[in-house]
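Worked Example 4.2. Read the sequence first, then its C-alpha cells.
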Amino acid sequence: MLLSLYDEIILKISEFMTDREKIYLSMTSKRMDQLKYKIRYVELVSVLDIRSLPYFDNFECVHAHMIISLDKIPKHVKYVHIVTTETNIPRFVTHLTFAFNFDKPINNCIPSSVTHLFFGAYFNQSVDDCIPNSVTHLGFGWDFDKPINQCLPTSITHLTFGRNFNQPIDKCIPALVTHLTFGFFFNKSIKDCIPASVTHLEFGFHFDQPIDGCIPQSIVKLTFGKNFNQLINNFIPQSVKKIILHKCYDQNISQGLAAKIKRI
C-alpha cells in the first residue's frame, strides 16, 4: 500500500516536469528506474529517436517525416505529427503538414482526427469540401490562391493565408476564428468580413484598404504592412491594445492612438 501511494505521488509530481527531467529522475535509483515505465512523456519527439526504447509506448506526442502504420506508434499516443507528400493519411494523425512541394487534390484525403493542418509552399488546389470540422488550426503556403467561399469549417480558430492569396473574403472567415493572418499580396475589401471573434489580426505588405467600420470590438492586436496608408483615427476600437504600423505610414494619428502604436 505504501509503495503504491509512493508511486502515485511520484507520477503526479512528474506531470510538472519536462521529459528530460523525468528521465533524470528515473536514473536516481532502481526504484525510480522502474517508474519510467509508468511515467508518460508528453513533449514532441521523433518516432525514430524512441523506437528502440523499452518504454516506447509511454510517449504521447510523436512526429514522423513519412506515413507510418498504427503498429509503429506508441500505444498511449495522443498527438501524431506527420510531414508528407502523400494523400493516404492514417486516421490517427492529429497534426498534418504537407511538404514543401506537395500540390495534389485533397478530396476525401484528410481524416477527422486532424486538428492542425498546414500546406507547403507549392500547394494551390481547391479546398472545397475537403477540410473536416475537426481542424482548428489551418495554414496555407505561398502559392495558394483559390476561392474559399463556403470552404472553411466553423471549427477553425487560427487561420493563416500565404504569400499569394488575394481572393475576396466576404462571408468566408469562420465565426470562431481568433487569430487571422493575411499574406504579402492580399489587398481586398474587409468590409463586414472580419468576425467578432478575432482578437489578433495581421495584414501583409500590399494591404491598403479603408478600415472604417471594419475592425471588430474584439481585436486586441492589429498589424498593418508597409503599403498601408489609410486613415485610422476614429476607426480603431477601444479593445485594441497594440497597433503595428510601418514607418512609411504618414496619416495623422490621434494622441490616444499614438500610445498604442509601434513602428517597424
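Now turn to a second chain, presented in exactly the same format:
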Amino acid sequence: MNTNRVIFLSLLALVSYGFFGALIISYQNFQANACPHLFSIPVCYVVLAAYSLMLVSLLVPHKGCKHHFFSIGWGVAFIIALLASIAEFFSAGAICPTAQAGMRGGSNLNVVIPTCYISLVLLVVILVLFIKGPYKKLCALPN
C-alpha cells in the first residue's frame, strides 16, 4: 500500500473518530446537559458540524473546493477545542464534557480526560495528515 493511501485512510479514521465522538456527546446533550452552551447553542453541535464538514470533504470526490470545506471545519473545531482547553486548564474544571460521564462538576473523578483535550490533540494530528496527504496531492495538480 502506498504512503498516500495510508495517510488518507489514517486521516479518514481519525476524522471519523472525531465525528462519532462529537455525535455521541451531542446525543448525550440531547438527553441531558453534557455540553456547555455558546449563545444558547450547545458547543458539541457546532463541533459535530465542523467534523461533518471535514468528513464530507474527504468522502466527496470533487477536488475543486474540497480543501476549503476541510479548512473551515478544521478551523472551527480547532478554535473551539483550543479555547475550551484553555478555559478547562485555567478554571476549576467542569468546562468540557468527559468521555464517560458528561460534565464533571463536583465529581471526584480526576483521572478522566476532558474531551476538549482529546479533540485538540486529534485536530493537530489531523492537520498534519491532511497537509501531508490530500492537501499536498491537491497542490501538485496543474491549475
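Notes for the reader: DSSP finds four helices and two strands in the chain. Strands lie at 37-38, 41-42.
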